[in-house]
Write a structure and sequence with these properties.
alpha/beta
């Protein structure tokens, strides 16, 4: 009887082994349609997924959409069609480690690499000389700030007539940010994120133990109580994450939070010094970037930017929780300059 716990433990070993190798869920028809409508291009030996839709006739405007953590380009599904009615081209990609792109491991993921990835896609699509509008969210906000930093540096080089042969830098027309941890001092990561990014031994276990139930609880906490995803939408988010074993790279991807702190001066400096038209669309119920702490600091540091605060029940995913409000805010901004 003294060894009962050992017997139970031995019985659990094969069960745990099976659990840790549960295959990813089958993609829903909606996710399959999104995947089928896109393409892949090669970036530093990896396949990267993107969508490029041609829309409004008579317009030459281009908009590029940068998604957040831990989801994918599918985050833009609810505003995709309306954007194609306004823009000539609407482009979105899955960052390396996300969605339908490759998820190499081990790999040192960084914001700098993701920014280079966006620049490579722009070059791949022949848009190097085209002014582009960026819409970003969460993780994508920080990638956008690195792209903005490179844009500012490029403009300075042009003014001094040095390094004029640099290519691949985005030619910004505008930047619209939304609910992202721009400022480390007002950013409150979730407990699981902290454990995954800072505790390497524990993170290797947690990435394998994370399942749909844990994911749904965690992602549901950053949606408003009246704007929760449907069960099918939760599964689509989880399906995109689990594609190519994406759960196993979450800890590596989350190093972006530490990178934000390390490079705060670079990225916040770009935000505060740029002359590019800026707008912030903000869901005020966001527990990650809480109101009014976040928006007050944004107003203080970026006074030339306009901003829209959505209804009080909108949280961290405004483009999914209030797509019409998001679109109204964005179109008002894009028509203002």
């Amino acid at each position: 009887m003294k060894e009962w716990w050992l017997q139970v433990g031995l019985l659990c070993i094969p069960l745990v082994a099976v659990y840790l190798h549960i295959p990813p869920p089958q993609l829903s028809p909606a996710l399959n349609k999104w995947l089928s409508a896109g393409e892949h291009f090669h970036f530093r030996g990896h396949n990267v997924f993107y969508r490029d839709s041609f829309g409004a006739l008579g317009s030459s405007d281009v908009v590029i959409l940068l998604h957040g953590f831990p989801t994918s380009s599918y985050d833009w599904i609810k505003i995709w069609e309306p954007l194609t009615q306004r823009f000539h081209r609407v482009i979105a990609l899955d960052f390396l480690g996300f969605g339908f792109s490759d998820k190499p491991r081990p790999h040192k993921y960084s914001i700098f690499e993701q920014a280079s990835l966006v620049e490579a896609l722009v070059s791949h699509l022949g848009l190097g000389q085209q002014k582009v509008n960026l819409i970003s969210h969460d993780y994508g906000d920080t990638v956008a700030l690195e792209l903005l930093y490179s844009h500012i540096l490029f403009c300075l080089c042009r003014q001094t007539r040095s390094d004029q042969n640099r290519t691949g830098r985005l030619n910004f027309n505008s930047l619209c940010l939304s609910n992202g941890g721009l400022f480390p001092e007002t950013h409150h990561p979730r407990l699981l994120q902290i454990l995954l990014k800072d505790y390497s031994i524990l993170s290797s276990i947690l990435t394998r133990l994370t399942n749909h139930v844990i994911f749904q609880k965690g992602i549901g906490e950053v949606f408003g109580p009246y704007t929760q995803p449907t069960e099918a939408e939760f599964w689509d988010m989880w399906g995109g994450l689990r594609y190519n074993d994406g759960n196993l790279v979450l800890d590596s991807l989350l190093q972006y939070i530490n990178q934000r702190l390390k490079h705060r001066e670079r990225w916040v400096g770009a935000l505060t010094s740029t002359s590019v038209p800026l707008h912030m669309i903000y869901g005020p119920l966001d527990p990650v970037n809480p109101h009014p702490e976040f928006i007050r600091l944004y107003q203080k540091l970026v006074p030339r930017s306009t901003f829209t605060i959505l209804d009080e029940h909108i949280s961290h995913y405004p483009q999914l929780e209030d797509p019409q409000g998001f679109l109204n805010a964005y179109f008002n901004f894009i028509h203002s300059f």
